[in-house]
Specification:
- With 442 residues, this protein is α/β, with parallel strands linked by helices.
- The protein is 43% helix and 14% strand.
- The strands form three sheets. The protein has a six-stranded parallel β-sheet with strand order 2-1-3-6-7-8, with helices on both faces.
- α1 crosses α16 and α12 packs across α15.
- It is globular.
- The relative contact order is 0.12.
Amino acid sequence: MTGRIVFCKHAVETLTYFSRQLAEAFEAWGYEIFWMDLAKTGLSAWKLRQAVSGTVSPGAETVLITFNFIGLSGEEEWYALDDYGQPAASIWEQLGIRCLNILVDHPIYYYRAMQYPLPEMQVFCIDRDHVAYMKRFYPQIPCAFLPIAGNRLLEDERYQEQNVPDLPAGQEQNVSDLQHQQEVSFEEWDNRLYPLIFTANYVPIANLEKQLSRLEPEYRDFYDAMIQSLMHNPNQDLLSCIEGFLRREIPDLSDAQLCEGMSSMPAVDLWVRTCFREKTIQALADGGVKIYLFGKDWEQISCRHPENLIVTGRMVTSAECVRAAMQAKISLNTMPWFKDGAHDRVFTSMLCGAAALTDDSRYLREQFADLDTIVYYGLQQLEALPQQVTALLADPQRLFALACRGKRAAVQCHQWKNRAAILEKYAARAGKVKDEKIMKLQ
């Protein structure tokens, strides 16, 4: 057997879906896949110990691949206790399992977790700015760039006859598995149900305002100044903006102090990404463009023309998002403030044969040329977005050709199996490092 890869499930649905796509690739290459179930932590821990101790597939090298510190965040039954009943060594340390930890959010969200990193942990970030942040503030933790990838239907979902969720009356239709054909005809593509979709949840700005309103006026004004700076100049990355404001207040701030200060800034990140998401949808609806919204709480958004918003009214799964993209001509993305990375919505759209419409980043500009394999719009030119969409839909032959080129590019380079090939090199390196340590001890 090639080796054993451990994944976690039943934590965050989207991250489990990413893990399942990676698992498909590793399993096809001959790896044994072991699932740690966060709904059954004790049983999972026992089964893993049995596997690694040799009662199941003896001799296999075991590596954990996880996202956002899932499984590395103090799960009680996965830790041995010290003499005082406090968590001491994790199951990964006890069993000598190296961890490959992929962060799909900015590292500022994981300040506490990174204060006590596992000795055998390799971190990956999906934005090169995030990698630079890690190398500056956590040089002791190995970190590398790993772009996110696009979702496709999993093997057990590919031939199920399912409806796209919660369509308006009269528009229900079984979705054929178009994405697994090499090409589709223009006629098939032109008959897709949705001219324009967006697969994401809505967070009302009022919810974030409540959080900021609890702060002292001085702090609230400070946060607001940073938010307004990012809103007026959305080309800024998060660190550059916030560091500038913090150093104006405390010029001799050390990197350690700056890192701690950044850990209190997720609210700034959430605010600007949420605000631009809201403004983008409002611009489209009020500009006369109908958009199908797959996600919860969109009925709460305020706009002048809500009749242009067709909403599911609930949370949708990753598979449902894929199926929606398989029936879309254009799939919208708003970037979560990744200025040198990408979001999985971009690649998922392409893999499903929809034209990806997104604000840009340095990484995306390197990968895809505007109006060739992708369509970019500007956060500072949202008033032009409705006309941009209308013009795209008015020339379906050209839009179809663009979508086909985008799909071919994504199939070649931006599936989860492409990322698994990179991770496999680190998994193999884990075994080599372990063997070298053993040799030194002999």
